[in-house]
């Protein structure tokens, strides 16, 4: 039996703060990796690269917080249309796929009390 090595093809994901004059907290993770919490000033991005699973099951999700609002979304799922770029605006988060110029609205902010963080 001959085993062929799968070529290492890394994928990358970018989350960019496009809020107006607000610091954004970003915390992304997968089942196996916690990428930690990161504070992004306006215009800054958080990016990570990884080798997708051989089984096509790679999943990353992110939680975002700004002032009294938060939201969570799936940032990468191998079995779905692959989205590489995420832009965080005052009305929510928008995605852009790797090969398309059009963006789409993914998720709105929700208000939370400080106890819910």
From TrEMBL:
A Pfam match: Self-incomp_S1
One Gene Ontology biological process: rejection of self pollen
Domain of life: Eukaryota
GO cellular component: extracellular region
Transmembrane segments: none
UniProt KW keywords: Secreted, Self-incompatibility, Signal
Location of this chain's protein in the cell: Secreted
InterPro entries: Self-incomp_S1
Family: Belongs to the plant self-incompatibility (S1) protein family.
UniProt-recorded name of the protein: S-protein homolog
Species, as recorded: Linum tenue
